[in-house]
Design the sequence.
């Protein structure tokens, strides 16, 4: 008997195991270092190398050979993995020197360096568990954090130096604070100088941040975990910057804004990016590392909010600034003094800068993400012309392109050198074994990107099926993409007897700034209206397949919020909901995300986007699911909504998950969550 999809989906960590990732290309372009597990259900990530000329792969480090216990992780590392949504174990991250000759990584809190040519691995002695080791560009030192202190170790004599020690338990040096890692995609807290003789280091002081406590009621003997959580309107961590030299000098780098968005230190100097608390102004500053003095290079403002784009700032070989900003109604790549991409091409991310070339991701059609290259005034499509979702890296004339399409199972990683194909890096991911029946359409009055999925055995027009809306629906994330992997769970739900509709409404990326900014000061109205608009648009396209008298909705995180919102405010349209880890009151969510869209709580935009006032309206089946160890959307969201529903006398179901975080990585939990949702929805919609 073949393995069920829920079991396979859980065991393969949503089919991410076995997929190559984390690519680093040597400056000469002849070698590619990358991460991959040895199989599609193997959770232990290994370090590999690909020879570009021969196409041969070589295993560099298998953590099993080092006899390290991957479960023995320091709390800071567990938090980093939660913030980065890391699904696997083993070597989940690494860094190299500029020559890509030596790599450093942490394993079970230990510090390791490996000679990439010989494969010789050293386990270096440290005074405590290691977080985020990073090689110096010269390969002479490795930096890391332990116990909140920033250390370096000389690889020649293995002598360890603490360059900065925390002055209090709430202080850390060299780590990104919660807001940076959760909301700004900045996972690092220190940056080496190109010469390897100095480091820009973040000092984060969490003492101003309120204390919350994450308890596990299923284990009352276990003390609650204390967490500093900056909810909307409250204090953030205090962030400072210092340039530390190997000789012990310490130079402050003052800045005035609330948020440190990013930093970069390349051959053209040290730069930092800061953002005001209201997120309407972003500043790029050039810093003199000798004095800490800064000079304003660029200031971007927006009446709604400025966008944080990963991969910038940077510089071309001639020193021209590489940046990204909104201009003339589009997200655009900026090189030097002006945009070099049209406003109709929405730039998503800067991937690499190699000499005079900028590699970046962008969308013309919102459901597709392509890889483009800018060079000497021209932009060129470098990913395949077949529509899909692609990413990439480049250095030394070598280009790595990863991608998925609707027509192929799994992702493909192509390697090209000077434009000539040089083979593929193998993916060991399991195949889901589903017959994908997805139609990507534009639906409703706003031509919303919508996916409609029917059961694999369904004959069109033969029967009207109960409908399941399956959105995320909020900022930062898309569900409707031209990639098979984006629709696997939705197809499985369809195969249980549903017509599944997935829609990306206003607030989601891919269609430009105006579309995204439609949710300013209102995270409820536009997103809910667009789900209804897309539902009716899909029904118009498939009139004999969708039964609008039986409509359910499910979602997780923002999607969970949207699911609960739907049955509370529009029971005329939605007849049942499953809300997983929902935000129910935006006052309980973090500063950076919430204030970007709703402002400060005292500005008056929170009540209309929260769910508590709607509790008395519930007259449809609602299942609330929440991990009690969730430190992102804490369980208080679900528990307070449940209390409000109880006070209003409204029946509902609550499924608490002991020991489960926002990611629900546990195999049994992930499998049975799918089965329980199907059972609930079938009973509710019969």
Sequence:
């Amino acid at each position: 008997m073949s393995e069920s999809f829920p079991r396979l989906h859980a065991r393969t960590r949503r089919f991410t195991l076995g997929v190559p990732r984390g690519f680093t290309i040597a400056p000469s372009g002849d070698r590619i270092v990358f991460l991959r597990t040895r199989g599609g259900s193997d959770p232990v990530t290994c370090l590999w190398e690909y020879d570009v000329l021969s196409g041969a792969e070589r295993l560099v480090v298998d953590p099993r050979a080092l006899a390290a216990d991957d479960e023995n992780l320091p709390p800071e590392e567990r938090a980093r993995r939660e913030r980065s949504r890391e699904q696997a174990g083993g070597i989940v991250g690494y860094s190299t020197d500029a020559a890509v000759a030596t790599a450093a990584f942490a394993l079970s809190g230990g510090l390791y360096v490996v000679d990439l040519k010989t494969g010789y691995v050293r386990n270096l002695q440290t005074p405590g568990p290691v977080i985020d080791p990073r090689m110096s560009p010269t390969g002479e030192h490795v930096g890391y954090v332990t116990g909140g202190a920033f250390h370096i170790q000389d690889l020649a004599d293995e002598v360890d130096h603490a360059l900065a020690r925390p002055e209090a338990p709430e202080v850390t040096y060299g780590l990104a604070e919660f807001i940076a890692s959760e909301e700004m995609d900045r996972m690092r807290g220190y940056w080496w100088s190109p010469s390897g003789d100095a480091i820009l280091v973040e000092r984060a002081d969490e003492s101003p941040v309120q204390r919350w406590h994450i308890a596990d009621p299923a284990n009352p003997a276990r003390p609650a975990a204390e967490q500093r959580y900056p909810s909307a309107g409250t204090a953030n961590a205090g962030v400072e910057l210092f340039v530390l030299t190997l000789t012990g000098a310490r130079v402050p780098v003052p800045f005035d804004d609330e948020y440190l968005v990013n930093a970069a230190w390349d051959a053209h100097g040290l730069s930092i990016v800061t953002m005001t608390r209201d997120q309407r102004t972003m500043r790029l500053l050039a810093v003199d590392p000798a004095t800490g003095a800064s000079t304003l290079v660029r200031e971007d403002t927006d009446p709604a909010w400025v966008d944080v784009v990963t991969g910038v700032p940077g510089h071309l070989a001639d020193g021209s600034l590489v940046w990204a900003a909104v201009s003339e109604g589009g997200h655009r790549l900026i090189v030097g003094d002006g945009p070099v991409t049209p406003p109709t091409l929405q730039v998503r991310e800067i991937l690499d800068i190699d000499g005079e070339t900028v590699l970046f991701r962008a969308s013309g059609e919102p459901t597709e993400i392509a890889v483009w290259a800018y060079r000497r005034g021209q932009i060129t499509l470098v990913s395949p012309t077949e529509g899909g979702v692609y990413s990439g890296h480049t250095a030394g004339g070598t280009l790595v392109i990863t991608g998925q399409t609707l027509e192929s199972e799994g992702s493909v990683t192509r390697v090209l050198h000077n434009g000539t194909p040089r083979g593929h890096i193998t993916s060991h991911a399991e195949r889901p074994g589903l017959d994908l029946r997805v139609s990507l359409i534009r639906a409703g009055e706003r031509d919303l990107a919508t996916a409609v999925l029917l059961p694999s055995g369904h004959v069109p027009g033969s029967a009207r099926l109960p409908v399941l809306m399956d959105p995320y629906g909020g900022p930062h994330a898309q569900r409707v993409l031209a990639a098979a992997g984006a629709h696997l769970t939705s197809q499985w739900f369809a195969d249980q007897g549903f017509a599944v509709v997935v829609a990306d409404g206003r607030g989601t990326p891919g269609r430009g700034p105006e579309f995204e900014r439609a949710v300013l000061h209102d995270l409820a109205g536009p997103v809910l209206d667009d789900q209804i608009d897309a539902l009716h648009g899909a029904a118009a396209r498939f009139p004999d397949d969708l039964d609008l008298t039986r409509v359910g909705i499910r979602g997780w995180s923002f999607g969970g919020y949207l699911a609960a919102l739907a049955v509370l405010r529009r029971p005329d349209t939605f007849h049942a909901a499953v809300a997983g880890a929902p935000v129910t009151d935006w006052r309980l969510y973090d500063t950076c995300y919430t204030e970007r869209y709703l402002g400060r709580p005292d500005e008056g935009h929170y009540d209309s986007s929260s769910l508590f006032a709607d509790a008395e309206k519930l007259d449809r089946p609602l299942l609330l699911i929440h991990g009690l160890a969730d430190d992102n959307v804490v369980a208080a969201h679900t528990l307070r909504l449940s209390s409000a529903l109880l006070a209003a006398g409204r029946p509902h179901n609550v499924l608490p998950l002991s020991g489960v975080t926002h990611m629900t990585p546990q195999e049994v939990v992930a499998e049975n969550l799918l089965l329980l949702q199907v059972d609930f929805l079938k009973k509710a919609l019969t």
